[in-house]
Amino acid sequence: MLRKLFVCMAFLTCIVAHVTFTNLKCNFTDRKIGNFQHCHIKAVNRTHKYVSVHANIYTKPINNVTINIRCMRYNSGYKPFFFDVTFDACKFLKQPRHPILILFYNTLKNRSNMNHTCPYNHDIIVDKLFTGDHELEFARYLPIPMGDYAIYVIFYIYKVKACTINLYLRITN
Ligand SMILES: *[C@@H]1O[C@H](CO)[C@@H](O)[C@H](O)[C@H]1NC(C)=O
Ligand SMILES: *[C@@H]1O[C@H](CO)[C@@H](O)[C@H](O)[C@H]1NC(C)=O
Ligand SMILES: *[C@@H]1O[C@H](CO)[C@@H](O)[C@H](O)[C@H]1NC(C)=O
Ligand SMILES: *[C@@H]1O[C@H](CO)[C@@H](O)[C@H](O)[C@H]1NC(C)=O
Ligand SMILES: *[C@@H]1O[C@H](CO)[C@@H](O)[C@H](O)[C@H]1NC(C)=O
């Protein structure tokens, strides 16, 4: 169980050679709340890719966000893989507790303007999130199973399903 936990945490944090982004899908399910200005993966060179997302928000300020994050592993379709957590993002930002969420947040916070407490009075931007930015020591010592994975994220704003972001990853040797 501990190993699976680390595998999941290591998704965005382990060494570059092992992880590559394969696809990114963003969808505003409620177009009254916002719209994705862009949502893409760019390749810098053969080994480095980054993710950039810009969400325009129409219903500012936002003071109540619930997020569901699920890890999936490909095995004749994407199947739930260990991690499925729903949390109140504004509460989390005020007082981060959950250790895996803290890891996700640490991966993201230097690359996103979501890195402050609520309310949000601006568009949401994730700028150039690299796989290689946050190498962790333990990732070197853990056997990470090869394969295709996905991280499914759903955002609820004031309890209304607002948008989904699916990030697909491949782990190779
Ligand atoms: C995006 O969300 C809308 C509204 O829920 C849905 O009808 C549509 O099929 C979704 N698009 C994709 C590509 O998932
Ligand atoms: C690819 O780009 C990254 C980021 O700019 C750089 O750190 C890395 O050394 C580059 N790799 C190669 C093979 O050029
Ligand atoms: C967000 O709204 C839900 C339901 O209305 C409530 O339970 C929760 O405490 C709110 N969160 C914040 C940070 O206000
Ligand atoms: C965050 O970004 C700053 C400035 O770009 C950089 O100096 C710092 O090392 C980064 N921190 C991490 C943990 O990547
Ligand atoms: C928040 O993100 C911005 C970039 O969007 C960065 O310049 C800043 O250093 C980040 N702050 C923290 C506390 O990570």
Automatic annotation (TrEMBL):
InterPro entries to which the protein is assigned, alphabetical: DUF1091
Pfam families, sorted: DUF1091
Iron recorded as keyword: no
Keywords assigned: Signal
SMART domains to which the protein is assigned, alphabetical: DM8
Signal peptide extent: 1-17
PANTHER family attached to this UniProt entry: DAEDALUS ON 3-RELATED (PTHR20898:SF0), DAEDALUS ON 3-RELATED-RELATED (PTHR20898)
UniProt protein name: MD-2-related lipid-recognition domain-containing protein
